[in-house]
Design brief:
It is built from 13 helices and nine strands. By secondary structure, the chain is of the alpha/beta class. The protein has two domains: 39 residues; 264 residues, no CATH class. Strands 1-9-6-2-5-3-4 form a seven-stranded mixed sheet, sandwiched between helices. Strands 7-8 form a two-stranded antiparallel sheet. Helix 1 crosses helix 2, helix 3 crosses helix 4 and helix 7 runs parallel beside helix 9. The longest helix has 49 residues. The protein starts with a helix and ends in a 10-residue tail after the last helix.
């Protein structure tokens, strides 16, 4: 240890002679300042990569699982059950440790039969992953999901999407899944809402009514869903007009993600909206939007605040009367 200290002292002495002692002190002070300022900034941009790493570790596990079971009879319908339950346990543990994840209203998810779950889309819908895990663990069901085409272009994601029944959303496929008795989750705002909503939690659904028509055609109930503080965990930089124009024109998410903050997550499921043959798709879409908006108004302080969301890990606000 002493030899290492002597070596470092010698290097600093030579540098001091070369550039001058005063200048060396100035450089070291400046370097210390840069480390103090930029280390926290670097961390908030690195943390989102851990979610991507966790997803790829999940995919690696599925490939190992597939290899282990490839000799079983023609891949029976239940061959992936063990893998789904294992990953659900891991993701549920991640949510509990990192976000103190809670889910309220899980009893509203039917034990059998179809239901369309409609949720607000955060910058990263990690709350939806935790929700899927809870449905697998506590309900013993797999919830099919609709995802943006962008997700299907990410290298290596194919197996993960297949195992968890993720589709890119043609209405016919969605109706078929519900008619077969499955749960189906989707966000009408999709990637647009993920990228361009903000801490005031606007719903960027536009005039999308396809999800409502799906529920009508399948005669399925709709369950609204919202997760408190989802916008305070991850956020995007660069959501200016140019980014919006690029996305609308080329469907490219030209933004920079940061965050990964361990804020408190509480997922709330609203009362199911039953199938009503007298409602049009436009009327049903409006009714669902109002239901999700009501969950936001009831459970989310506006505007969202990262520090407050962090403190909620230790202190819960009194319920509104």
């Amino acid at each position: 240890m002493a030899e290492g200290d002597d070596y470092l002292s010698g290097v600093l002495h030579l540098l001091g002679q070369w550039i001058g002692r005063d200048s060396l002190d100035d450089y070291l002070s400046y370097l210390d300042y840069l480390l103090w300022v930029f280390t926290p900034l670097a961390i908030v941009f690195i943390l989102p990569l851990f979610i991507l790493l966790f997803l790829y570790l999940s995919i690696l596990f599925l490939h190992v699982y597939k290899r282990k079971n490839e000799l079983r009879e023609a891949y029976s319908n239940n061959v992936w059950d063990g893998a789904r339950k294992t990953l659900a346990t891991l993701w549920d543990g991640h949510g509990t440790i990192w976000h103190g994840y809670e889910i309220h209203g899980l009893e509203k998810i039917p034990e059998k039969g179809p239901a369309l779950i409609v949720y607000y889309h955060g910058a990263i819908p990690i709350d939806y992953y935790y929700f899927l895990a809870n449905v697998i663990i506590h309900k013993g069901r797999t919830c099919h999901s609709v995802a943006d085409h962008f997700l299907f272009k990410i290298p290596g994601f194919k197996l993960l999407l297949e195992v968890f029944s993720v589709m890119h959303g043609p209405q016919g496929e969605c109706v078929r899944a519900l008619r077969e008795g499955h749960l189906l989750g989707l966000s009408p705002g999709g990637l647009r809402e993920a990228l361009f909503s903000d801490e005031t939690y606007p719903l960027l659904w536009g005039k999308r009514r396809g999800f409502a028509q799906v529920a009508i055609d399948a005669e399925a109930p709709i369950i609204p869903m919202f997760t408190q503080n989802i916008r305070e965990s991850f956020r995007y930089l660069g959501t200016w007009k140019l980014s919006r124009w690029v996305y609308e024109r080329f469907r490219l998410p030209l933004v920079l993600l940061y965050g990964g903050f361990p804020v408190k997550f509480r997922t709330y499921l609203g009362d199911p909206i039953p199938y009503d043959p007298n409602l049009s798709a436009a009327e049903l879409a409006e009714k669902v939007q109002q239901a999700v908006r009501s969950l936001i108004d009831q459970h989310q302080p506006i505007p969202g605040n990262i520090l407050r969301a962090l403190l909620e890990r230790f202190y819960r606000r009194p319920k509104k009367e």
